[in-house]
Design brief:
Number of helices: 2
CATH architecture of the domain at 9-58: Beta Barrel
Distance between the termini: 98 Å
Radius of gyration: 26 Å
Shape: rod-shaped
CATH topology of the domain at 9-58: OB fold (Dihydrolipoamide Acetyltransferase, E2P)
Number of strands: 3
Structural class: alpha+beta
Strand order of the largest sheet: 1-2-3
Order of helices and strands: EEEHH
Helix content: 10-25%
Strand content: 15-25%
Largest sheet: 3 strands, antiparallel
Length: 101
């Protein structure tokens, strides 16, 4: 009897790969979080259709950068105030006194 294929237990994080493919950090059943692996989201949906229901409820992939983590409703984005505009001082274009005629 062949060994049973590990099953995904939960999604720990998500990101978009350099080639713009959604990826999931999967923690596998009977393994700790340190042994989680990044997997292509579409492949996980094909290999584990019963896990797809959980994915649809938890995740929606939108455009984001490589290796970025989307914020969840429990972690609202930080509101930052724009700082004052810094104006560069005008450069002194006069010659030093010793070089003047």
């Amino acid at each position: 009897m062949p060994p049973e294929e590990p099953q995904p237990a939960q999604v720990l994080q998500r990101r978009t790969s350099p080639d713009q493919q959604p990826q999931l950090l999967i923690q596998w059943n009977n393994q700790d979080a340190a042994s989680a692996t990044w997997e292509n989201a579409h492949e996980i949906r094909l290999r584990f259709p019963e896990f797809q229901v959980e994915l649809e409820d938890e995740l929606s992939f939108e455009t984001e950068g490589v290796d970025t983590i989307q914020e969840t409703e429990h972690d609202p984005p930080a509101k930052t105030k724009p700082g004052p505009t810094r104006i560069q001082p005008r450069r002194n274009t006069q010659l030093p006194i010793r070089l003047r005629d």
